[in-house]
Amino acid sequence: MTTLSGAFRDSVTMLRRDFRHSLRYPAMTIGGTAVPVVFLLLFVGVFGHTLGAGLRAATSGASYVGYLAPGIIVMTAGAAAAATAINVCLDMNEGIIARFRTMAITRTSVLTGQVVGSLIRTLISGALVTAVAFAVGFRPTATPAEWIAATGLFAMLTLALTWLAVAFGLLAKTPAGANSLSLIPEFLPFISSAFVPPDTMPGGVRWFAENQPFTPIIETLRGLLTGTPIGANAFLAVAWCAVIAAVGYLWARTLYDRLPTRAPRAVAA
Amino acid sequence: MNEPLPTSLVAAPTGLAVKTRGLRKSFGAKTVLDGIDLDVPKATIFALLGPNGAGKTTMVQILSTLLRFDAGEVTIAGFDLGREAKAIRAAIGVTGQFSAVDNLLTGEENLILMADLHHLDQRAGRRRVAELLDRFDLVEAASQMVATYSGGMRRKLDLAMTLLGDPRLIFLDEPTTGLDPRSRRTMWQITRDLVAAGVTIFLTTQNLEEADQLADYIAVLDHGRIVADGTPNELKRRIPGGHVQLHFRNVQAVDTAMTRLGEGSRDDDALTLQVPNDGTPKSLEGLLDRLDRQAIPVERLTVHAPDLDDVFFALTGQPQPEKEFAS
Fold it and tell me: What per-residue confidence (pLDDT) applies to B317?
């Protein structure tokens, strides 16, 4: 058997394992969808009137939900990444991981299984969040080709954040630590163009919001879904995703190879 | 007690399953393994006996490719540990004191996971899984989540998962720690059956009886060194017949007894003094006589059959080391 087909087969086996886990322990998957939905409802239903009125000039009269929804969809990827980091950290504390490491299987297949599993779950969450946004008044104007491009961008972002989350999960010794680390991708969208345009922000914050990775990604998604200008954001969005994915993957792989053998939970006597 | 099997009865007894020369490992400034030389012939049970913190688990983690070692030469199943880890992984199986099972899967799903990772085709895999569930008496629990299993069931599933890959060499790291006596006997029987089928077992244990029951050869590990090795019979000949534990009212009484008897190992928390004694009427009489003549204020005494403490006392001249660090 060639190494490549072995790697593929092992990764599919690990994906099946990850899928079973998500069925047995669905809280994480549900949380990944619930958090962005709560933000969506909060910002549309509670703050929406004031924010929308204040933004009318800056957003050329579009409804606030139309401005907000693409940012919330991007936040879905961040929230799902937090769940992935916690899942990976919990999993690495299980004795079965030590067994995998003593077996003649493709070394990173455990991680690949988790990443592909997370990617599928996050795409479903993204679709659900989009549906809820639609229910509260989001009316995208995207053509089928633009929908495909938007889905592709969301998948790229998810893949990048998931590899980063896997590295966080491996780095943290406890699930609480993994959760703290993943607050970064989860809350970074707040200081971006997700909720309000950066040019309404004061100096230093504005500079940060304009130059951090989430803004070009949100702007590109917003452009694809609602027809706002995209410009150079498309290139920046793809470049940021590629860089984050590469860093996350290499970091995760290095950490997994160096993984100390932790004492897993003792057996119940 | 098992004598080594006659060579003619052992399946394919050529060569060594494990060979180490000058194996060393430190964690920072703490030396955990300090030059270990071992030879484990194929199709035998080898027991590494020692207290917590002696370095047993570290030894298993190194030999099973989980941990790097600092110095020495190690050959496992004919492969060099430094260069051929992948070939070694294909030949070995590991069942530890911490169960290497997936708690969120059912017992059957755990075994199917192993079948898939060993690239068995689906039919062969299912057949093997069914066989193992039956052999380990796990058929009824097969569709329950492992998180609900008892310690004994978990350990059996763990070993079944190890066996799915048909390993030629199995590391059993304290396989019966925390098990009830019945589950312990079951594990012992399974181990014997495996060796009869030609598998080599590398066992670690803190339990002298377990080593005595199972092992063809025992090495005693203490503070990272092999302090004694031999067949169970050879070792037992070197161990005195147990000890008597003297219980006192207070520390002063322990002091008095220690001074007047001039031997034994004391425990000031438990207010006891442990003196070597084989427990025969004659030697007990001798001890009672001395206690009486020297007016040692003993509250009561208990007689103990030889255990690991005695092995340590006899082999190292030290009572068993403090059980402070997890191995």
Answer: 62
Q: What span, in angstroms and rounded, lies between the C-alpha atoms of A169 and A85?
A: 4
**Residue A205, min C-alpha distance to chain B (Å):** 44
Residues B216 and B145 occupy one common structural domain: yes
Which chain B residues contact residue A4 at CB under 8 A? Answer: none
Whether B39 maps to a domain, the answer reads yes
Q: Who among A95, A101, A263 is closest to B101 (CB)?
A: A95
Question: For position B272, which CATH number holds?
Answer: 3.30.70
pLDDT one-digit tens code per residue, B106-120: 999 999 999 999 999
Show which of B213, B237, B261 is a domain's final residue.
B237
Q: Report yes or no: A142 and A150 within 8 Å, Cβ to Cβ.
A: yes
Cβ <8 Å between A20 and B179: no
Best A17, A86, A102 member to test B by mutation, with max B CBs in 10 Å, is A102
Q: Supply the pLDDT for residue A265.
A: 36
Contacts with B96 from chain A: Cβ below 8 Å: 95, 98
Q: How many independent structural domains does chain A possess?
A: 1
- How far are the Cα atoms of A130, A200, A250 from residue A66, in angstroms, in the given order? 11, 18, 37
Residue spans of chain A under pLDDT 50 = 1, 262-269
Q: Which domain holds residue B256?
A: 243-304
Closest C-alpha to A105, from B117, B141, B229: B117
Q: Which of residues 74-93 of A touch B (CB under 8 A)?
A: none
Interface with B, mutate which of A24, A92, A99 (most B CBs under 10 A)? A99
Same domain, B250 and B208: no
Kindly report, residue by residue over B210-259, the tens digit of the pLDDT.
888 899 999 999 888 998 888 887 877 776 667 888 999 988 888 888 88
Return the pLDDT at B14.
56
Sign (positive or negative) of CA dihedral A47, A52, A53, A59: positive
Same domain flag for B140 and B287? no
Looking at the structure, tell me whether residues B86 and B233 fall in a common domain.
yes
Where residue B185 sits, what CATH number does that domain have? 3.40.50.300
Residue B312 lies in a domain: no
Q: Do B119 and A6 touch (CB under 8 A)?
A: yes
Beta-carbon separation of B104 and A24 below 8 A: yes
Query: Is residue B325 one of the residues assigned to a domain?
Result: no
- Does an H or E element contain B303, and which? strand B300-304
- Put simply, whether A96 touches B (Cβ < 8 Å) is yes
pTM of the model: 0.78
Q: Which residues contact B264 (CB under 8 A, 6 or more apart)?
A: B246, B257, B258, B273, B274, B275, B276
B94 and B59 co-located in one domain: yes
Asked whether residue A176 is assigned to any structural domain, the reply reads yes
Instruction: Please say which residue of B203, B237, B271 terminates a domain.
Output: B237
Q: Which pLDDT band holds residue B305 (cuts at 50, 70, 90)?
A: confident
Q: Are residues A102 and B104, on separate chains, in Cβ contact within 8 Å?
A: no
Please give the tally of structural domains in chain B. 2
**What is the tens place of the pLDDT at every residue in B71-107?**
999 999 999 998 888 899 999 999 877 778 998 899 9
d(CA B37, CA B18): 10
Residue B182 has a pLDDT of: 84
